[in-house]
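Predict structure. Chain length: 265.
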Amino acid sequence: MDSTTSSPQNKLKFLQRGKKSTWLSSFNVTDSLGIILISNFAYNTLILFFLALLYGAQARLANKPAPSLVQLNTGETTAVKTIGNKERTPEVIKAFTIKTMSDLFTWTGRLPGKDGVPFSNLDSDPGVEIHGKGRRRGKISTQAWKASFALADDFRDPFLLKLVDLTPSNVFKGKTQFAFVPQFVREPIKIKEGEWTLDLVGTLTVLDTTNNLPTYIPFNKQVHVRAVEPPKYSPGMADDSLPPIIAKAREKGLEVVSIKDLDSK
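Prediction complete.
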């Protein structure tokens, strides 16, 4: 017998038939780690690229100046600036104080009308009755009642009772008129966050319509105001309903906490 053909090596040669070298057979662990590292590097590079784009966009937005003008519904423009929720500019504080005090202490016996309407054509003011402790106390002007919603809740009721005592009945008969005339308003003094006091110097001009001779009463007060959130209500409500009246009185985001004589601090 031929020893060559019967050897174990010859018997196993048929198992090696068809065995070819492929790229998978030459692929080792080192190659796998290399591809993983390269993929990870590319992924991190892409993330850094997008982060750089995001940072650039934020930087441009931060450096962009805030809008200095806004356009109103009327087409007019007004200057604006960014302030904190509890901050108010001195101009806003003074304007709110003068407007509120003027509405509270100006009594003409007529209801406010549109600009240009002669005073004699305005509707008579029936006044608003104020009741205290279950009984009728008297009347105040309609405009003063509306403006009283600019007062703090715990200050409003006692103030209205005092205002009744100050308002003569002749106002509603068309015989007497009162007009608050501001003469000087000191710059607001901040006493704590969101609260200020300011001194207001003026006069109450009293006109007796029977002789048209005015008299003047000094009106010097220290007014304490604080920042509040301006109320917002759904549009379409009647102007004489309560929500628009409150919104109008508090549209500047302020309320009156107290009104004192200027000398009594």
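Summary: The helical segments are 8-11, 29-63, 90-105, 142-147, 153-166, 242-249.
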